[in-house]
Amino acid sequence: MDFGFPVPSKFCDYQLIEKLGSGGQAAVYKAVDLSLDRVVALKTIFHPSFKHPDVYDVFQAEARLAAQLSHTNVTHINKFSECDGVPYIDMDFFPGSLADRIDQHGRIPYEDAVKIALQVCDALSHAHPLMVHRDIKPHNILLDNEGVAKVSDFGLARALQGTN
Q1: Which of 13, 92, 135, 144 is catalytic?
Q2: Catalytic site includes residue 13
């Protein structure tokens, strides 16, 4: 996604390294948190639409919902904040997604596919009392260096609070 203007290489306490992906109105960057000297994934909206209250509220709601989840197979949210009025979500960084693995290696061996599917199901089961994810796809299943699945991108999640 091209927002029509350059994205800064430095964003408050973060050095943006590379764009990992984008969709809707947000983009995710591999970044270095300069205050803690660690690599993170930074999701932000470098687009004028972030100033619209509804867009901001949905973005913040995503962070709040995902931050309530503490599970081995869910991407950890470190912080929701703003930099010069631009909202962002600081998350743990993982080197690739299930989509990347499929693109690079083709068909996944049966044993690995079952292992990943069980981890995703475990994460979704953990999240289900709070929300329904609504956008499970290979791009939203991140893999750590050991191949452990991490469900990410709760942007389309629907909160279940107040429902039976």
Answers
A1: 135
A2: no
The Cα-based distances of 157 to 12, 63, 77, 84, 126 in angstroms read: 28, 11, 15, 27, 14
Q: What is the DSSP string of 42-95?
A: EEE--SGGGGSHHHHHHHHHHHHHHHT---TTBPPEEEEEEETTEEEEEEE--S
Residue corresponding to tokens 């292992």: 115
- Residue range 135-146, pLDDT digits in tens: 789 999 999 999
pLDDT value at position 143? 97
Quick one: 62 exposed, middle or buried, by C-beta within 10 A (0-12, 13-18, 19+)?
A: buried
> How high is the pLDDT of residue 68?
85
Distance in angstroms (rounded) separating the CA atoms of residues 89 and 76: 10
Q: How many CB atoms lie within 10 A of CB 153?
A: 25
Measured between alpha carbons, how far apart are the two ends of the chain, in Å?
Answer: 38
Amino acid letter, residue 131: M
Percentage helix, strand, coil, to 5, in the chain? 30, 35, 40
Portion of the chain with pLDDT greater than 90, in percent: 50
The string over 64-79, giving b where at least 16 C-beta atoms fall within 10 Å of a residue's C-beta and e elsewhere, is ebbbebebebbbebbe
For 78-105, how does the pLDDT look when each residue is reduced to its tens digit (9 = 90+)? 999 988 888 899 999 999 999 999 999 9
